[in-house]
Design brief:
By secondary structure, the protein is mainly α. Helices cover 56% and strands 5% of the residues. It has a domain at 1-16 and 25-59. Strands 1-2 form a two-stranded antiparallel ribbon. Helix 1 crosses helix 2, helix 2 crosses helix 6 (128-148) and helix 4 (83-90) crosses helix 5.
Length: 216
């Protein structure tokens, strides 16, 4: 198997590559491969997030705000998205998402409204400014993502998506057993979804707090 980011994985895992006591050579090799795969995924995810955040900053967004806008926009057809549902999709705690929502409301990107179908429920809906910002970001975001993956041909992309789909659902199951926040399991589609249909687990909003907008 190729040595994916071997130096990086060694620094993370603190392994020498030698089988531990009680391990066979094949077990040690398997564990070493697992370390290298996880290290490569982590480094790729980190670099992707930096590149995506840099691109989205041109529209006044970061990765988590863009993803939140996407989720809330898609949910509008079914009556809106609750704060708890947004936290589930983002794979974050409700307290973290509460801070995110407050900041996005301060930026006039969304509203928290009473549900039309359940008066006891509050839902999140995009403001006109939020929809405009999302539309402008979408116009170049898909092309940017396509450029990031230009190193893969169509068959490789399909295989990569297949493998990542299995991994995401497995990790979601493990998180559920641990009682930590995790995105809902994803049904396997027959085709690779468009870039704007993919919900990724993202990190917390790193934007600085904003001043509350004055009442209209």
């Amino acid at each position: 198997m190729p040595d994916f980011e071997a130096d990086f994985s060694t620094s993370i895992a603190g392994q020498t590559g030698e089988p531990q006591t009680g391990q066979t050579g094949s077990e040690g090799a398997s564990q070493k491969e697992a370390e290298q795969i996880v290290a490569a995924i982590l480094r790729s995810a980190q670099r992707l997030r930096v590149l995506l955040s840099s691109h989205l900053s041109e529209f006044g967004l970061n990765d988590i705000r863009f993803t939140a806008l996407e989720i809330i926009d898609r949910s509008s057809e079914s009556g809106g998205c609750s704060q708890a549902q947004l936290a589930e999709h983002l794979g974050q705690s409700e307290s973290s998402v509460s801070t995110l929502v407050d900041r996005m409301r301060s930026s006039r990107l969304l509203y928290r409204l009473q549900s039309q179908t359940d008066k006891r429920r509050k839902v999140l809906m995009l403001s006109e400014q939020g929809r405009d910002m999302l539309t402008r970001a979408r116009q170049s975001h898909a092309a940017h993502l396509d450029d990031l993956l230009k190193c893969f041909d169509d068959a490789q992309r399909a295989l990569l998506y297949e493998l990542l789909h299995v991994l995401v659902n497995e990790l979601s199951s493990l998180q559920s057993h641990l009682g930590t926040a995790a995105p809902a399991r994803v049904d396997h589609p027959s085709t690779i979804p468009s870039t704007t249909d993919v919900t990724l687990r993202v990190g917390p909003d790193r934007s600085p707090p904003e001043q509350q907008a004055p009442a209209a």
